[in-house]
Specification:
By secondary structure, this protein is mainly beta. It has one domain (24-114). The protein contains no helices and eight strands.
């Protein structure tokens, strides 16, 4: 099992076709007793929050966010954690909007500065 997410910062690799987060977005994660939560902002995201659970290397969470256009949106995501050769963590994500149509996949990796 990958190490705790607590105190780690993740950044996306590019922007998914129907997504809003991009390389300018940073996710600050916390984890305790199987509960995972994060705050995120940057790029087109003014403010976002996610909360969910972790079972082994799988994270299941819901997210809400406000974009630069003043629009709110929400969705569900399931992520798989892997450890990179340099010790940083990667999440491979499958997500779906719940507030509007659209699904996608994306990858976020731990920022070298937080490793």
């Amino acid at each position: 099992m990958a190490p705790s997410l607590d105190g780690r910062v993740f950044v996306p690799h590019g922007r998914a076709e129907l997504g809003e987060v991009d390389a300018g977005t940073a996710f600050s994660y916390h984890e305790a007793d199987g509960v995972v939560w994060a705050d995120y902002a940057g790029g087109d995201i003014v403010r976002g929050h996610l909360v969910g659970t972790r079972d082994g290397d799988t994270i299941d969470f819901r997210y809400v966010q406000l974009n630069a256009a003043g629009e709110t949106s929400s969705g569900h995501c399931r992520s798989t954690l892997t450890e990179l050769p340099d010790g940083r963590l990667r999440m491979t994500e499958t997500w779906e909007w719940e507030s509007r149509p659209g699904t996608g996949t994306s990858t976020v990796e731990e920022s070298p500065a937080s490793a």
